[in-house]
Amino acid sequence: MGNVAITYFSGRGHTRKLADKIAVALGQEGCAARLIDVTDLSQTDWQAMEAADAILLGAPTYMGSIAAEYKSFMDATSDIWSEQLWADKLAAGFTVATFPGGDKLSSLMQLNIFAMQHGMIWVGQDQIGAPVNADAEGINASGTWLGLAATTVRDKTLMVSQGDLETAHRFGQRIARAVRRWSI
Ligand SMILES: Cc1cc2nc3c(=O)[nH]c(=O)nc-3n(C[C@H](O)[C@H](O)[C@H](O)COP(=O)(O)O)c2cc1C
């Protein structure tokens, strides 16, 4: 069991698609996942974050950094930071961009530093895809280990590649494993 708050901003739905995929994986692993759109925060959302074992941080990469809407949310947590109310919670980050590189690492680094400022425990990516593992075609295709980094595809029913969707699923499974271990 465990509670996970999945915070996100999504301009056109790509980040939300990853958030949904992670939430489903968490649910299958017995974790209660709450999706939180940071542009529409309620008091209940803030309480859910306060009660969560893990807070996931999801934002698209815009102009080589996280989208401004998500940064506004980060800045709004400064009172929480000053009291370190999120200290020792698990944290993990995910982002998406159009280009395979797309400067997504910059976004994940921002999210990571944010979590470190809050005294949180960072969970990164553990998936080794092709070309190292020949049977893992499309998994962690961007070769990024700081977090989940996906790339858009033109197929709007998918939004990101099948491999990225599967990577998001495995990312959710990893968070669930970490929550189980950290909750002992
Ligand atoms: C203002 C803006 C800036 C962007 N900057 C980048 C960028 O630096 N690198 C990149 O690869 N894609 C960039 N993109 C593309 C987005 O990252 C991509 O469309 C992403 O899927 C958007 O996710 P969302 O639908 O959750 O908002 C940008 C898009 C916008 C609207």
From TrEMBL:
UniProt entry tagged with the keyword Flavoprotein: yes
Which GO cellular component does the record give, naming just one? membrane
Concerning Gene3D superfamilies, the annotation shows:
3.40.50.360
- Please verify whether the record's keywords include Flavoprotein: yes
- Keywords tagged on the record: Flavoprotein, FMN
Query: Where on the tree of life does the source sit, at the highest rank?
Result: Bacteria
Record GO terms (molecular function): FMN binding; NAD(P)H dehydrogenase (quinone) activity
**A Pfam family:** FMN_red
Q: Which InterPro entries match?
A: Flavodoxin/NO_synth, Flavoprotein-like_sf, FMN_Rdtase-like_dom
Q: Which intervals hold domain Flavodoxin-like?
A: 4-150
What is the recorded name of this protein? NAD(P)H dehydrogenase (Quinone)
Give the species this sequence originates from: Thalassovita litoralis
